[in-house]
């Protein structure tokens, strides 16, 4: 609370956000909302997300959309990412895609990998499992991010597998396996086996199942 009263904008917004998190954890939702509102007014991107999520949760759609518009206008890559993620979570695909595209174009390297990954997911959720989703996953993969690159390789493998493009699927699943990233190894190996089966390479596929 001392930080919140310090008068320094960044420290104050962070402090109000942390107070909101603590109060939310204690299920003290009214004061939590007030703290998130103060942090949001000072430009804290995560507070924008939390406040909008809270408002959607209590069916205050008008209030939530007003908060999202503020976050959208700030032109902050992180704010655009969080707004896009929230809109995707509540099924507003077109708004999510617009916001996530803004996040990818902001040129913030700390946000770009997750923004492209989220954008690809939003395209898939909207039923556009075409070149737009594939292109966004490729961009996420090309960042070389230790988490999002291998995860994107698996997602690309799954997309190509669903289209029965088994050679491309095999290449992407193999890339995920080669990353040695533990969180994707099981899915990557199973996907690789399915791709090899589609190519009638049963000898290589069988040990992977």
How does this model look, in words?
It is a single chain. Helix 9 packs antiparallel against helix 10. The termini are far apart. The protein has twelve helices and no strands. With 209 residues, it is an all-alpha fold. The longest helix has 17 residues.
Lay out the secondary structure.
Blueprint: H1 9-25, H2 29-41, H3 45-57, H4 61-73, H5 77-89, H6 93-105, H7 112-125, H8 131-142, H9 148-162, H10 166-179, H11 185-198, H12 202-205
Record keyword descriptors for this entry:
209 residues; mainly alpha; single chain
List segments where confidence is low: pLDDT < 50 over at least 5 consecutive residues. 1-7
Radius of gyration: 20 Å
**Structural class by secondary-structure content:** mainly alpha
Strand content: under 5%
The helix content is over 70%
Shape: elongated
N- to C-terminal distance: 55 Å
Summarize the structure.
This protein is 74% helix and 0% strand.
């Amino acid at each position: 609370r001392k930080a919140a009263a310090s008068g320094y904008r960044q420290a104050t917004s962070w402090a109000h956000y942390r107070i909101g998190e603590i109060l939310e954890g204690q299920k003290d939702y009214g004061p939590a909302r007030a703290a998130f509102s103060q942090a949001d007014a000072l430009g804290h991107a995560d507070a924008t997300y939390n406040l909008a999520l809270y408002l959607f949760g209590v069916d205050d759609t008008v209030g939530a959309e007003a908060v999202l518009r503020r976050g959208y206008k700030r032109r902050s890559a992180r704010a655009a990412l969080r707004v896009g993620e929230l809109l995707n979570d509540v099924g507003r695909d077109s708004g999510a895609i617009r916001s996530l595209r803004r996040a990818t174009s902001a040129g913030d390297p700390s946000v770009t990998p997750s923004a492209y990954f989220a954008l690809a997911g939003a395209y898939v959720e909207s039923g556009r499992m075409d070149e737009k989703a594939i292109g966004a996953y490729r961009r996420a993969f090309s960042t070389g991010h230790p988490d999002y690159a291998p995860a994107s390789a698996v997602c690309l493998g799954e997309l190509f597998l669903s289209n029965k493009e088994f050679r491309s699927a095999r290449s992407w699943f193999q890339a995920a396996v080669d990353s040695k990233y533990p969180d994707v190894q099981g899915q990557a190996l199973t996907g690789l086996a399915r791709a090899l089966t589609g190519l009638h390479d049963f000898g290589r596929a069988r040990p992977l199942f």
